[in-house]
């Protein structure tokens, strides 16, 4: 049984003009435990929307998202929040750290929504990402690369089976990006988490053995292309 299974997943949005646009139409997608997979997609192709559907931040219009045999898409919002806290770590392009809290507190707060707060493990993770001497710093007292490393530690805090990464190196310079990506991959491996990373960056995608093109799994992109060519003709 795969760790993640998506079936007949659809999500549409209403445009300001009142037209409904299908953004996600994924008939089938699976991810195995402990695997590392990248999804390639251009800007606006629905990468964040797809990750948010998997994480249960968004509810689909149709279809199923099943994580570790639990159907995320069938739950109400508090249920989805719980399932996410217990099973998923999420790394954002903009890190989403709480500025009023120290690095350690950011990781501990992430734990408080999950199976329980484990200060020793939080410290171990921060040391693992090279921030053993920065635990009491607040995010704005850190470099951008260091902030992303806090986000990596936080994503792994609840020992998730699945880590989702949304353009996690998009705000980093070349060297930091390469280092952060290596760290994300190694840390997921060490902690037994599968990794699903979305990006449009060729260099990032080049690090993965398995890369899926979003245009191949998301039929909504075919429709968008057809509509565009019809409008253009
Ligand atoms: N709340 C919303 N209401 C209406 N349209 C939305 C909403 N959220 C996203 N969209 C539209 O859905 C499409 C996909 O957005 P999404 O953020 O998933 O793309 P993306 O591939 O992550 O893009 P990027 O790489 O630029 O972040 C875009 O065309 C966007 O305008």
UniProtKB/TrEMBL annotation:
<dbReference type="GO" id="GO:0005524">
    <property type="term" value="F:ATP binding"/>
</dbReference>
<dbReference type="InterPro" id="IPR003439">
    <property type="entry name" value="ABC_transporter-like_ATP-bd"/>
</dbReference>
<protein>
    <submittedName>
        <fullName>ABC transporter related-protein</fullName>
    </submittedName>
</protein>
<dbReference type="Pfam" id="PF00005">
    <property type="entry name" value="ABC_tran"/>
</dbReference>
<dbReference type="InterPro" id="IPR027417">
    <property type="entry name" value="P-loop_NTPase"/>
</dbReference>
<dbReference type="GO" id="GO:0005886">
    <property type="term" value="C:plasma membrane"/>
</dbReference>
<dbReference type="InterPro" id="IPR015854">
    <property type="entry name" value="ABC_transpr_LolD-like"/>
</dbReference>
<dbReference type="InterPro" id="IPR017911">
    <property type="entry name" value="MacB-like_ATP-bd"/>
</dbReference>
<dbReference type="GO" id="GO:0016887">
    <property type="term" value="F:ATP hydrolysis activity"/>
</dbReference>
<feature type="domain" description="ABC transporter">
    <location>
        <begin position="4"/>
        <end position="233"/>
    </location>
</feature>
<dbReference type="InterPro" id="IPR003593">
    <property type="entry name" value="AAA+_ATPase"/>
</dbReference>
<dbReference type="GO" id="GO:0022857">
    <property type="term" value="F:transmembrane transporter activity"/>
</dbReference>
<keyword id="KW-0547">Nucleotide-binding</keyword>
<keyword id="KW-0813">Transport</keyword>
<keyword id="KW-0067">ATP-binding</keyword>
